[in-house]
Design brief:
This protein has about 350 residues and is α/β, with parallel strands linked by helices. Helix content is about 40%, strand content about 15%.
């Protein structure tokens, strides 16, 4: 991060895809839509295309994240593809090193490995994934370091080696929604991505902690922070606000603990939520920029002025695939091309 004021037109912008399953549609259709979106994102100049690990959620099909990264990378040519993120407590570091070492070998210079320490699901499902929950958050730094070692320089004398994996030096990011990951990323000299698209409360503090705790490393000499936000862009503010009701309904499901596929937009949310639910959804979606290209540009620039992040990642929870594509196309006109 520099001390100079940044302009939206001068920073990289990227895509976060949760691979939504739409009401009345199948996961196979979601995978096809994601590949199509990735191809368009590449043409429009987006920096990277990340997929996030979630489990046991009816509206999200990105559970086998590494497989989908391969699917997207094989469907594109130049855009960076990676995880936003892999929930490391669900996996042995060696397994992730082998998976991402394989991906990097297949698609050299294009793979990112973003790591989180949350399970990406409920506790019952976490138990089914891991078989036991004896680990705790204190293990996370150790597991990150172990993973770095597997992906680092080859050591023919090591008893356990990631093959493929060793020597690939896949770029590792730490993800978070609190100051814990921010401080760890700073201390380890790694790039940091904050999940402000659903957990906005600690964004400013986390960025401050990250920058103040940063120690240069072999992989990164200066702090590099990315924030994820929601964007719903359309030709008019009115149409964007209608499309955004899909986003509101998905977060309403989170608050209620109800699992449903993504719902088509509605003309009004009146009668679908009560006052407290509406407040909670809007609190979670504080960093959501909804409107015409002009409206989104003004609001995103204000966000950049406020945070001075080095990169913005965008999630667009829009029901109709064509409308989702159009939102990303409109947004692409506002930032620098890769």
């Amino acid at each position: 991060m520099t001390n100079e004021k940044q302009n939206l037109a001068g920073i990289p912008v990227s895509v976060l895809d949760l691979v939504p399953v739409l009401e009345g549609k199948t996961a196979a259709e979601s995978f096809r839509n994601s590949a199509d979106l990735a191809q368009h994102a590449e043409q429009w100049g987006y920096q990277r295309y990340w997929l996030a690990e979630h489990h046991n959620i009816a509206g999200i099909a990105s559970s086998a994240t590494s497989l989908l990264i391969g699917h997207i990378a094989s469907s594109t040519s130049t855009i960076r593809v990676g995880s936003g993120g892999i929930m490391l407590p669900n996996h042995a570091p060696l397994v992730i090193a082998e998976q991402f070492g394989t991906l990097e070998t297949l698609y050299p210079g294009r793979i990112d490995l973003g790591l989180g320490r949350a399970p990406g699901t409920d506790q019952v499902t976490a138990m089914a994934l891991r078989r036991d929950l004896r680990g705790n958050v204190e293990d996370f730094p150790q597991h990150v370091a172990e993973l770095q070692a597997y992906l680092g320089p080859a050591d023919a004398g090591a008893r356990v080696r990631a093959i493929p994996g060793e020597g690939t030096r896949v770029p590792i990011w730490l993800l978070g929604s609190s100051t814990y990951g921010a401080q760890l990323a700073g201390m380890m000299g790694l790039p940091y991505a904050f999940a402000s698209h659903f957990a906005p409360a600690s964004l400013q503090l986390a960025l401050k902690v990250y920058r103040e705790s940063f120690q240069p490393s072999e992989s990164l000499q200066e702090p590099y922070a990315m924030a994820c936000v929601n964007v719903v862009a359309a030709d008019t503010d009115e149409e964007a606000n209608r499309l955004a009701t899909t986003l509101y309904m998905s977060f309403l499901n989170v608050i209620r603990g109800t699992g449903k596929p993504a719902q088509p937009p509605v003309d009004s949310m009146d009668g679908l939520w009560d006052g407290s639910e509406k407040y909670s959804v809007h609190q979670m979606l504080r960093y959501s920029f909804i409107g015409s290209a002009h409206t989104v540009q003004e609001e995103l620039q204000a966000f950049l002025d406020d945070t001075q992040v080095d990169e913005i990642m965008v999630a667009s929870n829009i029901y109709e695939h064509a409308a989702r594509l159009h939102s990303y196309e409109l947004l692409s006109g506002l930032f620098k091309k890769v």
